[in-house]
Amino acid sequence: MRNFNLKFVIVFLMLIGMVSVPTLAKEGKIVGGVIYSMPSWFKESFLELVDDVDEAKQKDKHVLLFFHLDECPYCDHMAKNFDKPFLRDFVQEHFDVIAINMRGDKEVALGEDKAITEKEFSIKVGVRYTPTIVFLNQKNKIVARTNGYRSPEKFIEVLGYVQSKSYKNSTLAEYIEVNKKTGNYQLQDHVMFQKVTDFSTIKTPLAVIFEDKNCDACAYFHNTTLKNKAVMNEFNAFSVARLDANSTQAIIDNKGNKTTPKAWVKKLKLNYRPGIILFNKGDEITRIDGFLYTFHFKEALRFVSGNFYQKLATYGAYLAYRQKELLEQGIDIDISK
Description:
By secondary structure, the protein is α/β, with parallel strands linked by helices. It folds into two domains: 49-170, Glutaredoxin (3-Layer(aba) Sandwich), CATH 3.40.30; 199-334, Glutaredoxin (3-Layer(aba) Sandwich), CATH 3.40.30. It is built from twelve helices and 14 strands. It has helices spanning 2-18, 49-58, 73-81, 85-94, 118-125, 152-163, 172-179, 218-223, 229-235, 261-267, 294-305, 315-328, and strands spanning 30-31, 62-68, 95-101, 107-111, 114-117, 132-136, 142-147, 206-211, 239-244, 251-252, 258-259, 275-280, 283-288, 333-334. It has a four-stranded mixed sheet with strand order 3-2-6-7, sandwiched between helices. The protein has a four-stranded mixed sheet with strand order 9-8-12-13, with helices on both faces. A two-stranded parallel ribbon has the order 1-14. Helix 4 runs parallel beside helix 6 (152-163), helix 9 (229-235) runs parallel beside helix 11 and helix 11 crosses helix 12 (315-328). The longest helix has 17 residues, at 2-18. The radius of gyration is 25 Å and the shape is globular.
């Protein structure tokens, strides 16, 4: 009997050893973030914006709000650009720059009886990408903004628009159009670009890309973004058309109006190239009007084609949901390429 019991125990222990112990799934991680610092000459503000505007007014300056995010690679580029001599000198002369952390908890005083956190203020202003730059005039009104990163050469156009107070009689897009220098970028074709003249007939996801000869980010768009397999997989859900923003060819826009690419881009107030408008069911859902690396670019496409905009109010809310989903699946996210 003892031998039987001993054999039973041995067999039982062997079976336990054969059963593999489940291991915890490895969680993915976000890579490509950059630790950066703001230029030392940015204003040390108590974030009492009424006072900040008044102080700027006394010096005949505008307030420039720099919405940023910790470890944001685009913000790192932008912060470094502010220290380029030709930008730094112009900005210091004409603007007071205040940094706002998009997820920060510092209080922002909007008036004597109104204070909200940096995070709440970012939502109120409608920040979608970082960096977002918001300009306040001397009456504490928003007069211009840029969504996402722009090169120093393009950003100084925006600075000139605000400094000259051209916002009083023109849009930023109109100002750039009037003051632009003739560029030498040659528009490139792509196999996915469709020849569309009546956009009102397309009720499925639609991406309309506006380029022109002055586009300094179009080469990267074609040579890097459009050669990324994950980006192209997301584009498969779209009808894609590329338009020359200076063209006077007759077309019909998404609402059935007769127009031209030049008139349409003006109506859209799209002041970045390549500027991309993402439509679904004939309506604009969101736009890409700043530089994006491939991860954020492809997710902007998925936000529209997957109808996530119907469940999540903003691209930012979708991005938080999507990043959590991918990380839980053990997928690493590179935000820097």
